[in-house]
Amino acid sequence: MNSNITHKKRSNDNAEISCSEDPENMSFFSQGLRRRKLNLCSCSSLILIIILITIIYFSEILLFGWRRGDVFCGPNLASETKLTELKNKVNFLTSILKRFGISEKEYIDEHLPKIFVVTPTHARPVQKAELTRLKNVFLHIPALHWIIVEDANGKSELVTNFLKTSSIPHTHLFKQTPVQWKINQKDPRWIKPRGVLQRNEGISWLRENISPTEKGVVYFADDDNTYSIELFKEMRYTQKISVWPVGFVGGIMVEKPLLDEKGRVRGFNANWRPDRKFPLDMASFAVNLGLLVRSTDAFFSHRSQRGFLETDFLEKLATRDDLEPKADSCTKVFVWHTQTSDPDLNREQKLKVQGKRSNLGMEV
Ligand code: UDP
Ligand code: MN
Predict the structure, then answer these.
(1) If you write DSSP's letter for every residue of 125-178 in order, what string do you get?
(2) Do residue 172 and residue 310 come from a single domain?
(3) 189 Cα–ligand 2 center, Å
(4) What is the number of structural domains in the chain?
(5) pLDDT digits (tens, 9 = 90+) for 204-238
């Protein structure tokens, strides 16, 4: 009965089992079970292998992809990020150049003629303020070399510190004016020329250190004038002597060269001693570097007649026909002869007497 039931059951199962009525067949049955187990085993092994392969495959991607820096981000994303960063930096720097009126072309051009600015300076309460005003303009000018010459018997701490932090290519010199050529406090400013030996010191340095074939221009910039950025753009390509108008000089609003219809200098509007060959202020001209270096007898002189310092110097370098009018045919003012007045320090004198100086241990 039991076997019948088994038989029926088996016959319901499959042909292989339905005919297994004897013990032999029974062992065959257990074999089948084993085989099924085996099938299951091989099936799960296969799944396991597939899982393993998948894990290895993805771990490869993870490992090498991570190393390449493009996992989760797609290929080349790291380099794209770097590129965007660099583009932002370029945009930022370009906007700075634009903001400060600096020509990108000028900065890239390594053959740009150099501008050598010679500045005589002397110790007084406003010295650092004056030099700072000049520095703030010079920082905008590419290929500018500042030669600062102190009227002193050595380099002062103030100017040394100032130049150290200026970020402008510079040369620091000194030359003391002998007392007989100094003006007394009560004398009018025009009685003796100032900055004479200091400018000459700058000229000597150029002759000793610069090759006569080097392209450039020399400008004598006193420390108390007001200079615009445009002025330096005008002077850079000077062939011999460039000239332009100057504000507040010679007792008039503007002293300027006068041009003929062909744009050549035919005269000057100077009020005082217009008979001078070059009735020009120190701030109104620049000299070609090679010309100045080669013209070894061209110096400023304390022996020049009062008011003849500039004309005597220029006569050693050029004729009127050599003058190159700049600043839109001498119609624009890019420099002003602003003379800073001494600040009122009457209370400071009292503090000094009491040993309570306001600037004790401080550079002003
Ligand atoms: N200067 C100088 N020693 C002095 C007086 C002036 O080196 O004893 C410098 C001054 O700092 C300036 C230049 O010489 O750079 C011209 O001097 P100042 O401005 O007094 O002359 P002005 O403009 O009145 O002709
Ligand atoms: Mn001055």
Answers:
(1) TTHHHHHHHHHHHHTTSTTEEEEEEESSSS--HHHHHHHHTS-S-EEEEE-PPP
(2) yes
(3) 9
(4) 3
(5) 999 999 999 999 999 999 999 999 999 999 999 99
